[in-house]
Write a structure and sequence with these properties.
This protein is an alpha+beta fold. The chain contains 3 helices and 11 strands; from the N terminus they run αββαβββββαββββ.
Length: about 170
């Protein structure tokens, strides 16, 4: 009996000594430059591997060319940021806690003209602005306040947005 207890004791210690602490990848604060169309220096047309290498703290990913849902993408659900690498756009959602170069999230629809000018395409719940890098699409809630930001390296004519939410 004594030998069995000693064996269990040493087996427990040996197993515990093999365990390692692994630090979670961190990316720091996400910074979005609305006028230049970049997130932490990455453009919307950044390739899948480039985004993964630059921002290793992603919570989910789908490889480019994936035919399910919206194609390739790198997703940061905890930060409410989504890179759609097959479609060349970045989506910033309502719970985003990073830094915006222009505070458009939550801004009133009528307050954006002085910053962004007239939208190129307009609808009841969204507006698309022509930018030097492509286009900026702002979505509005029932109070006409911005609750979703999408910016792309493509123009409004070739923009292909995803209608499904990533995992």
């Amino acid at each position: 009996m004594r030998q069995l207890l000693c064996l269990l004791f040493f087996a427990t210690i040996f197993t515990g000594s093999k365990a390692q602490l692994v630090a979670k990848s961190t990316c720091g604060v996400f910074t979005v430059d609305i006028l230049d169309g970049k997130l932490n220096g990455l453009k919307p047309d950044a390739r899948w591997q480039e985004v993964k290498d630059a921002l290793p703290c992603f919570t989910a990913s789908q490889p480019d060319g994936d035919t399910t849902k919206c194609g390739g993408g790198i997703f940061f659900k905890d930060k409410d940021v989504y890179f759609f690498t097959d479609r060349d756009y970045i989506e910033i959602r309502e719970k985003f806690q990073g830094k915006l170069s222009i505070p458009v999230m939550g801004a009133s629809r009528t307050s954006l003209f002085s910053i962004l000018g007239n939208p190129k395409v307009k609808d009841d719940t969204w507006e698309a602005f022509q930018m030097a890098y492509g286009c900026l699409v702002l979505h509005y809630n029932k109070l006409n306040k911005v609750n979703l930001i999408q910016f792309s390296s493509r123009g409004t004519e070739t923009l292909s947005l995803c209608s499904q939410s990533p995992n």
